[in-house]
Protein backbone atom coordinates (compact mmCIF):
# COMPACT_ATOMS: atom_id res chain seq x y z
CA UNK A 1 0.00 0.00 0.00
CA UNK A 2 1.30 3.33 -0.93
CA UNK A 3 1.57 5.17 2.39
CA UNK A 4 2.21 8.56 0.79
CA UNK A 5 -1.06 8.54 -1.12
CA UNK A 6 -2.98 7.56 2.05
CA UNK A 7 -1.55 10.58 3.88
CA UNK A 8 -1.32 13.46 1.46
CA UNK A 9 0.88 16.40 2.41
CA UNK A 10 -0.88 18.87 4.69
CA UNK A 11 -0.94 21.60 2.08
CA UNK A 12 -3.33 19.69 -0.17
CA UNK A 13 -5.85 19.53 2.69
CA UNK A 14 -5.93 23.26 3.09
CA UNK A 15 -9.05 25.08 2.03
CA UNK A 16 -10.12 28.68 1.89
CA UNK A 17 -9.33 31.08 4.71
CA UNK A 18 -11.62 31.48 7.71
CA UNK A 19 -12.15 35.09 6.64
CA UNK A 20 -13.41 34.17 3.20
CA UNK A 21 -15.43 31.24 4.54
CA UNK A 22 -17.59 33.77 6.41
CA UNK A 23 -19.45 34.96 3.34
CA UNK A 24 -21.18 33.42 0.36
CA UNK A 25 -21.02 34.32 -3.31
CA UNK A 26 -23.00 37.35 -4.42
CA UNK A 27 -26.67 36.46 -4.80
CA UNK A 28 -27.14 39.42 -7.19
CA UNK A 29 -24.51 38.12 -9.60
CA UNK A 30 -25.79 34.55 -9.15
CA UNK A 31 -29.27 35.65 -10.23
CA UNK A 32 -27.86 37.02 -13.48
CA UNK A 33 -26.19 33.68 -14.16
CA UNK A 34 -29.46 31.87 -13.43
CA UNK A 35 -31.33 34.28 -15.72
CA UNK A 36 -28.96 33.31 -18.54
CA UNK A 37 -29.27 29.61 -17.73
CA UNK A 38 -33.10 29.67 -17.78
CA UNK A 39 -33.43 32.28 -20.50
CA UNK A 40 -35.33 34.46 -18.06
CA UNK A 41 -36.03 38.19 -18.24
CA UNK A 42 -33.38 39.66 -15.97
CA UNK A 43 -34.72 42.22 -13.51
CA UNK A 44 -32.15 41.12 -10.94
CA UNK A 45 -28.69 42.70 -11.23
CA UNK A 46 -28.72 46.46 -11.59
CA UNK A 47 -27.58 47.20 -15.11
CA UNK A 48 -29.32 48.68 -18.16
CA UNK A 49 -30.16 46.50 -21.15
CA UNK A 50 -30.37 49.55 -23.43
CA UNK A 51 -27.43 51.12 -25.26
CA UNK A 52 -24.96 53.45 -23.57
CA UNK A 53 -25.05 56.99 -25.02
CA UNK A 54 -23.12 57.47 -28.24
CA UNK A 55 -20.92 60.28 -26.93
CA UNK A 56 -19.24 58.06 -24.37
CA UNK A 57 -18.90 55.09 -26.75
CA UNK A 58 -17.35 57.27 -29.46
CA UNK A 59 -14.88 58.70 -26.94
CA UNK A 60 -13.83 55.17 -25.94
CA UNK A 61 -13.33 54.12 -29.56
CA UNK A 62 -11.23 57.24 -30.17
CA UNK A 63 -9.10 56.56 -27.11
CA UNK A 64 -8.39 52.97 -28.20
CA UNK A 65 -7.53 54.18 -31.73
CA UNK A 66 -5.30 56.90 -30.26
CA UNK A 67 -3.42 54.10 -28.56
CA UNK A 68 -4.31 54.92 -24.99
CA UNK A 69 -3.84 51.22 -24.38
CA UNK A 70 -1.20 50.93 -21.70
CA UNK A 71 -1.45 51.37 -17.94
CA UNK A 72 -2.75 54.72 -16.83
CA UNK A 73 -1.23 56.36 -13.75
CA UNK A 74 -2.14 53.93 -10.98
CA UNK A 75 -4.51 56.22 -9.11
CA UNK A 76 -6.13 57.55 -12.28
CA UNK A 77 -5.29 59.29 -15.54
CA UNK A 78 -4.66 62.98 -14.73
CA UNK A 79 -7.30 63.97 -17.31
CA UNK A 80 -9.96 61.91 -15.54
CA UNK A 81 -8.93 62.96 -12.06
CA UNK A 82 -9.17 66.59 -13.15
CA UNK A 83 -12.58 65.97 -14.74
CA UNK A 84 -13.87 64.30 -11.57
CA UNK A 85 -12.66 67.12 -9.31
CA UNK A 86 -14.13 69.71 -11.69
CA UNK A 87 -17.45 67.87 -11.73
CA UNK A 88 -17.72 67.93 -7.92
CA UNK A 89 -16.83 71.63 -7.91
CA UNK A 90 -19.42 72.39 -10.61
CA UNK A 91 -22.31 70.28 -9.36
CA UNK A 92 -21.90 70.42 -5.62
CA UNK A 93 -19.57 73.35 -4.91
CA UNK A 94 -16.98 71.07 -3.29
CA UNK A 95 -13.45 72.38 -2.96
CA UNK A 96 -11.55 69.42 -4.32
CA UNK A 97 -8.64 68.81 -6.67
CA UNK A 98 -7.15 65.83 -8.45
CA UNK A 99 -5.04 65.05 -5.36
CA UNK A 100 -8.24 63.95 -3.62
CA UNK A 101 -9.21 61.43 -6.29
CA UNK A 102 -8.37 57.73 -6.62
CA UNK A 103 -9.80 56.16 -9.76
CA UNK A 104 -10.68 52.50 -9.21
CA UNK A 105 -12.18 49.55 -11.07
CA UNK A 106 -15.74 50.62 -10.39
CA UNK A 107 -17.19 51.98 -7.16
CA UNK A 108 -17.09 48.37 -5.92
CA UNK A 109 -13.31 48.46 -5.82
CA UNK A 110 -13.32 52.02 -4.49
CA UNK A 111 -15.39 50.82 -1.53
CA UNK A 112 -13.26 47.80 -0.63
CA UNK A 113 -10.00 49.74 -1.15
CA UNK A 114 -11.30 52.48 1.13
CA UNK A 115 -12.44 50.10 3.85
CA UNK A 116 -9.13 48.22 3.80
CA UNK A 117 -7.28 51.54 3.90
CA UNK A 118 -9.07 53.02 6.90
CA UNK A 119 -10.19 50.11 9.11
CA UNK A 120 -8.36 47.85 11.54
CA UNK A 121 -9.45 44.47 12.91
CA UNK A 122 -11.63 45.17 15.94
CA UNK A 123 -13.05 48.37 14.46
CA UNK A 124 -16.75 48.67 13.89
CA UNK A 125 -18.73 50.16 11.04
CA UNK A 126 -22.35 51.29 11.08
CA UNK A 127 -24.41 50.05 8.14
CA UNK A 128 -28.04 50.82 7.39
CA UNK A 129 -30.13 47.72 6.71
CA UNK A 130 -31.38 46.65 4.19
CA UNK A 131 -28.00 47.20 2.55
CA UNK A 132 -26.34 46.55 -0.81
CA UNK A 133 -24.90 43.10 -0.26
CA UNK A 134 -21.26 44.01 -0.95
CA UNK A 135 -20.94 45.94 2.32
CA UNK A 136 -21.13 42.70 4.33
CA UNK A 137 -18.18 40.88 2.71
CA UNK A 138 -16.35 44.22 2.34
CA UNK A 139 -16.49 44.68 6.10
CA UNK A 140 -15.29 41.12 6.75
CA UNK A 141 -12.42 41.48 4.28
CA UNK A 142 -11.31 44.70 5.95
CA UNK A 143 -11.45 43.04 9.39
CA UNK A 144 -14.13 45.32 10.79
CA UNK A 145 -17.45 44.29 12.31
CA UNK A 146 -20.59 45.91 10.92
CA UNK A 147 -23.37 47.08 13.26
CA UNK A 148 -26.71 47.27 11.50
CA UNK A 149 -29.30 50.01 11.93
CA UNK A 150 -32.75 49.39 10.47
CA UNK A 151 -34.30 51.50 7.74
CA UNK A 152 -38.08 51.27 8.03
CA UNK A 153 -40.69 52.01 5.39
CA UNK A 154 -43.46 54.44 6.30
CA UNK A 155 -46.02 56.54 4.47
CA UNK A 156 -43.49 59.40 4.19
CA UNK A 157 -40.70 57.16 2.84
CA UNK A 158 -37.96 55.17 4.52
CA UNK A 159 -36.42 56.43 7.73
CA UNK A 160 -34.34 55.33 10.68
CA UNK A 161 -34.86 55.67 14.39
CA UNK A 162 -32.47 58.34 15.64
CA UNK A 163 -32.03 56.72 19.05
CA UNK A 164 -31.22 53.37 17.39
CA UNK A 165 -28.61 55.02 15.18
CA UNK A 166 -27.05 56.91 18.08
CA UNK A 167 -26.88 53.66 20.12
CA UNK A 168 -24.92 51.94 17.32
CA UNK A 169 -21.95 54.27 17.81
CA UNK A 170 -19.35 53.42 20.45
CA UNK A 171 -15.60 53.92 21.01
CA UNK A 172 -14.81 51.17 18.46
CA UNK A 173 -16.84 52.79 15.68
CA UNK A 174 -14.60 54.09 12.92
CA UNK A 175 -16.97 54.67 10.04
CA UNK A 176 -20.55 54.74 8.85
CA UNK A 177 -21.48 53.62 5.35
CA UNK A 178 -24.16 55.81 3.79
CA UNK A 179 -25.63 54.81 0.43
CA UNK A 180 -27.76 57.60 -1.02
CA UNK A 181 -29.77 57.29 -3.24
CA UNK A 182 -30.16 53.94 -1.57
CA UNK A 183 -30.09 50.43 -2.94
CA UNK A 184 -32.45 48.57 -2.42
CA UNK A 185 -34.92 50.95 -0.70
CA UNK A 186 -34.73 53.90 -3.10
CA UNK A 187 -34.38 56.23 -0.12
CA UNK A 188 -32.74 59.61 -0.72
CA UNK A 189 -31.26 60.84 2.57
CA UNK A 190 -32.45 64.32 3.54
CA UNK A 191 -30.25 67.17 4.70
CA UNK A 192 -31.65 66.83 8.24
CA UNK A 193 -30.76 63.11 8.29
CA UNK A 194 -27.26 63.75 6.96
CA UNK A 195 -26.75 66.46 9.59
CA UNK A 196 -27.84 64.06 12.31
CA UNK A 197 -25.31 61.51 11.00
CA UNK A 198 -22.70 64.29 10.87
CA UNK A 199 -23.27 65.08 14.55
CA UNK A 200 -22.63 61.43 15.45
CA UNK A 201 -19.52 61.28 13.26
CA UNK A 202 -18.14 64.35 15.00
CA UNK A 203 -19.08 63.11 18.48
CA UNK A 204 -17.40 59.73 17.95
CA UNK A 205 -14.63 60.94 15.59
CA UNK A 206 -15.82 58.72 12.72
CA UNK A 207 -15.57 58.77 8.97
CA UNK A 208 -18.53 58.67 6.59
CA UNK A 209 -17.95 56.42 3.60
CA UNK A 210 -20.65 57.14 1.06
CA UNK A 211 -21.84 55.20 -1.94
CA UNK A 212 -23.37 57.79 -4.28
CA UNK A 213 -23.37 55.75 -7.47
CA UNK A 214 -27.05 56.67 -8.15
CA UNK A 215 -26.42 60.41 -7.60
CA UNK A 216 -28.15 61.45 -10.84
CA UNK A 217 -31.12 59.10 -10.53
CA UNK A 218 -33.51 60.98 -8.23
CA UNK A 219 -37.24 61.58 -8.67
CA UNK A 220 -40.03 64.05 -8.02
CA UNK A 221 -37.82 67.10 -7.65
CA UNK A 222 -35.67 65.60 -4.91
CA UNK A 223 -32.04 66.65 -4.59
CA UNK A 224 -29.06 64.40 -4.07
CA UNK A 225 -26.95 65.86 -1.27
CA UNK A 226 -23.38 64.56 -1.01
CA UNK A 227 -22.42 63.98 2.62
CA UNK A 228 -19.13 65.79 1.98
CA UNK A 229 -21.06 69.04 1.44
CA UNK A 230 -22.58 68.95 4.94
CA UNK A 231 -20.77 71.49 7.15
CA UNK A 232 -17.88 69.82 8.95
CA UNK A 233 -17.92 66.65 6.82
CA UNK A 234 -15.48 67.45 4.00
CA UNK A 235 -12.59 66.28 6.19
CA UNK A 236 -14.45 63.16 7.35
CA UNK A 237 -16.05 61.86 4.17
CA UNK A 238 -14.90 59.51 1.47
CA UNK A 239 -17.28 59.98 -1.46
CA UNK A 240 -17.58 56.98 -3.75
CA UNK A 241 -19.21 57.08 -7.16
CA UNK A 242 -18.51 56.22 -10.77
CA UNK A 243 -19.73 56.31 -14.34
CA UNK A 244 -21.40 52.87 -14.36
CA UNK A 245 -24.99 53.78 -13.57
CA UNK A 246 -24.98 57.38 -14.80
CA UNK A 247 -23.70 56.57 -18.29
CA UNK A 248 -25.01 52.99 -18.54
CA UNK A 249 -21.56 51.42 -18.76
CA UNK A 250 -21.53 49.01 -15.82
CA UNK A 251 -19.11 46.69 -17.62
CA UNK A 252 -16.42 49.32 -18.02
CA UNK A 253 -15.45 49.34 -14.35
CA UNK A 254 -14.56 52.97 -13.85
CA UNK A 255 -15.33 54.46 -10.44
CA UNK A 256 -13.58 56.56 -7.81
CA UNK A 257 -13.06 57.49 -4.21
CA UNK A 258 -12.85 61.18 -3.39
CA UNK A 259 -11.19 61.62 -0.03
CA UNK A 260 -9.40 64.06 2.22
CA UNK A 261 -5.77 64.21 1.12
CA UNK A 262 -4.55 62.53 4.33
CA UNK A 263 -6.49 59.39 3.38
CA UNK A 264 -5.86 59.38 -0.38
CA UNK A 265 -2.36 57.89 -0.02
CA UNK A 266 -3.68 54.86 1.85
CA UNK A 267 -6.57 54.29 -0.55
CA UNK A 268 -4.20 54.63 -3.52
CA UNK A 269 -1.80 52.07 -2.08
CA UNK A 270 -4.53 49.47 -1.56
CA UNK A 271 -5.99 50.17 -4.98
CA UNK A 272 -2.56 49.86 -6.62
CA UNK A 273 -1.85 46.45 -5.13
CA UNK A 274 -5.35 45.14 -5.78
CA UNK A 275 -5.75 46.12 -9.41
CA UNK A 276 -2.96 48.53 -10.54
CA UNK A 277 -5.52 50.58 -12.38
CA UNK A 278 -8.82 50.94 -14.18
CA UNK A 279 -8.94 50.46 -18.00
CA UNK A 280 -6.92 53.32 -19.52
CA UNK A 281 -8.95 54.15 -22.66
CA UNK A 282 -12.19 53.97 -20.72
CA UNK A 283 -10.81 56.50 -18.24
CA UNK A 284 -10.29 58.95 -21.11
CA UNK A 285 -13.84 58.30 -22.31
CA UNK A 286 -15.10 58.83 -18.75
CA UNK A 287 -13.30 62.19 -18.60
CA UNK A 288 -14.99 63.21 -21.85
CA UNK A 289 -18.41 62.14 -20.54
CA UNK A 290 -17.98 64.04 -17.27
CA UNK A 291 -16.76 67.17 -19.07
CA UNK A 292 -19.56 67.24 -21.64
CA UNK A 293 -22.44 65.25 -20.13
CA UNK A 294 -24.12 67.68 -17.70
CA UNK A 295 -27.30 68.03 -19.76
CA UNK A 296 -27.47 64.27 -20.17
CA UNK A 297 -27.14 63.89 -16.37
CA UNK A 298 -29.90 66.44 -15.80
CA UNK A 299 -32.26 64.43 -18.02
CA UNK A 300 -31.51 61.11 -16.37
CA UNK A 301 -34.02 61.46 -13.52
CA UNK A 302 -36.90 62.13 -15.93
CA UNK A 303 -35.81 59.23 -18.15
CA UNK A 304 -35.84 56.82 -15.23
CA UNK A 305 -39.06 58.31 -13.85
CA UNK A 306 -40.77 57.12 -17.05
CA UNK A 307 -39.40 53.59 -16.53
CA UNK A 308 -40.54 53.74 -12.90
CA UNK A 309 -44.03 54.82 -14.01
CA UNK A 310 -44.22 51.88 -16.42
CA UNK A 311 -42.99 49.32 -13.90
CA UNK A 312 -44.68 50.01 -10.60
CA UNK A 313 -48.39 49.94 -11.51
CA UNK A 314 -47.73 46.88 -13.69
CA UNK A 315 -46.05 45.03 -10.82
CA UNK A 316 -48.88 46.02 -8.51
CA UNK A 317 -51.44 44.68 -10.99
CA UNK A 318 -49.44 41.46 -11.22
CA UNK A 319 -49.80 41.05 -7.46
CA UNK A 320 -46.61 42.55 -6.04
CA UNK A 321 -47.29 45.27 -3.46
CA UNK A 322 -44.66 47.96 -3.95
CA UNK A 323 -44.12 51.67 -3.35
CA UNK A 324 -42.34 54.25 -5.50
CA UNK A 325 -38.63 54.74 -4.81
CA UNK A 326 -37.32 58.31 -4.30
CA UNK A 327 -34.15 57.51 -6.21
CA UNK A 328 -32.01 54.74 -7.80
CA UNK A 329 -33.59 52.20 -10.15
CA UNK A 330 -34.98 49.42 -7.98
CA UNK A 331 -38.39 48.68 -6.63
CA UNK A 332 -38.87 46.43 -3.68
CA UNK A 333 -42.00 44.40 -3.12
CA UNK A 334 -42.92 43.27 0.36
CA UNK A 335 -45.20 40.35 1.12
CA UNK A 336 -46.58 39.23 -2.23
CA UNK A 337 -49.15 36.47 -1.74
CA UNK A 338 -47.16 34.36 -4.23
CA UNK A 339 -44.43 33.81 -1.65
CA UNK A 340 -46.58 30.98 -0.38
CA UNK A 341 -45.86 29.10 -3.62
CA UNK A 342 -42.35 28.46 -2.49
CA UNK A 343 -40.65 28.94 0.89
CA UNK A 344 -39.08 32.36 1.61
CA UNK A 345 -35.59 32.64 0.20
CA UNK A 346 -36.21 30.05 -2.51
CA UNK A 347 -38.95 32.16 -4.09
CA UNK A 348 -36.56 34.10 -6.36
CA UNK A 349 -34.94 30.90 -7.61
CA UNK A 350 -38.36 29.37 -8.20
CA UNK A 351 -39.48 32.50 -10.05
CA UNK A 352 -36.52 32.42 -12.42
CA UNK A 353 -36.96 28.71 -13.15
CA UNK A 354 -40.72 28.42 -13.38
CA UNK A 355 -41.90 31.86 -14.48
CA UNK A 356 -38.81 33.08 -16.31
CA UNK A 357 -38.21 36.34 -14.42
CA UNK A 358 -35.04 36.95 -12.44
CA UNK A 359 -35.25 39.14 -9.34
CA UNK A 360 -33.10 39.50 -6.24
CA UNK A 361 -34.42 37.86 -3.05
CA UNK A 362 -34.89 40.38 -0.24
CA UNK A 363 -32.83 38.15 2.03
CA UNK A 364 -29.61 39.25 0.31
CA UNK A 365 -30.00 42.72 1.78
CA UNK A 366 -30.14 41.60 5.45
CA UNK A 367 -27.53 40.11 7.76
CA UNK A 368 -30.27 37.81 9.06
CA UNK A 369 -31.74 36.48 5.79
CA UNK A 370 -35.08 35.74 7.47
CA UNK A 371 -35.74 39.47 7.84
CA UNK A 372 -35.88 39.94 4.08
CA UNK A 373 -37.55 36.65 3.22
CA UNK A 374 -40.88 38.29 2.31
CA UNK A 375 -39.25 40.79 -0.05
CA UNK A 376 -38.33 40.79 -3.72
CA UNK A 377 -36.23 43.41 -5.54
CA UNK A 378 -36.92 44.30 -9.18
CA UNK A 379 -34.55 46.43 -11.28
CA UNK A 380 -36.29 48.72 -13.76
CA UNK A 381 -33.22 49.94 -15.61
CA UNK A 382 -34.55 48.16 -18.70
CA UNK A 383 -36.19 48.84 -22.03
CA UNK A 384 -39.97 49.05 -22.24
CA UNK A 385 -39.95 45.75 -24.13
CA UNK A 386 -38.03 44.02 -21.33
CA UNK A 387 -40.26 45.47 -18.62
CA UNK A 388 -43.40 44.48 -20.54
CA UNK A 389 -42.10 40.96 -21.15
CA UNK A 390 -41.34 40.53 -17.46
CA UNK A 391 -44.79 41.72 -16.44
CA UNK A 392 -46.48 39.44 -18.99
CA UNK A 393 -44.61 36.47 -17.53
CA UNK A 394 -45.42 37.49 -13.96
CA UNK A 395 -49.11 37.61 -14.91
CA UNK A 396 -48.91 33.81 -15.24
CA UNK A 397 -48.56 33.63 -11.46
CA UNK A 398 -52.25 34.38 -11.10
CA UNK A 399 -53.25 31.36 -13.17
N1 LIG B 1 -25.47 47.51 -7.75
C1 LIG B 1 -26.01 46.48 -8.58
C2 LIG B 1 -27.18 45.81 -7.93
O1 LIG B 1 -27.49 46.04 -6.80
C3 LIG B 1 -25.03 45.40 -8.89
C4 LIG B 1 -23.68 45.84 -9.06
C5 LIG B 1 -22.80 44.68 -9.26
O2 LIG B 1 -23.26 43.57 -9.46
N2 LIG B 1 -21.54 44.96 -9.20
O3 LIG B 1 -27.81 45.02 -8.58
How are the SSEs placed, and which strands pair?
Blueprint: H1 3-6, H2 10-13, H3 18-21, H4 27-37, E1 41-42, H5 54-65, H6 78-92, E2 101-104, H7 106-118, E3 124-129, H8 135-142, E4 145-152, E5 159-160, H9 162-168, E6 173-179, H10 191-204, E7 207-211, E8 237-242, E9 255-258, H11 261-275, H12 280-292, H13 294-317, E10 330-334, H14 347-355, E11 357-358, E12 360-361, E13 375-379, H15 384-395
Parallel strand pairs: 1-11, 3-4, 3-6, 6-7, 7-8
Antiparallel strand pairs: 2-9, 4-5, 8-9, 10-13, 12-13
Helix pairs in contact: 5-12, 6-12, 7-8, 7-11, 13-15
The structure holds glutamine.
Residues 28-29, 45-46, 108, 132, 183 line the site of glutamine.
Report on this structure.
Helix 7 (106-118) packs across helix 11 and helix 13 runs parallel beside helix 15. The chain has helices spanning 3-6, 10-13, 18-21, 27-37, 54-65, 78-92, 106-118, 135-142, 162-168, 191-204, 261-275, 280-292, 294-317, 347-355, 384-395, and strands spanning 41-42, 101-104, 124-129, 145-152, 159-160, 173-179, 207-211, 237-242, 255-258, 330-334, 357-358, 360-361, 375-379. With 399 residues, it is α/β, with parallel strands linked by helices. The protein has an 8-stranded mixed sheet with strand order 2-9-8-7-6-3-4-5, with helices on both faces. A 3-stranded antiparallel sheet has the order 10-13-12. Strands 1-11 form a two-stranded parallel sheet. The protein folds into 2 domains: 20-46 and 296-398, Alpha-Beta Complex (Aspartate Aminotransferase, domain 1), CATH 3.90.1150; 54-292, Aspartate Aminotransferase, domain 2 (3-Layer(aba) Sandwich), CATH 3.40.640.10. The longest helix has 24 residues, at 294-317. Residues 1-6 have low confidence and may be disordered. The protein is globular and about 60 Å long. It binds glutamine. Residues 28-29, 45-46, 108, 132, 183 line the site of glutamine.
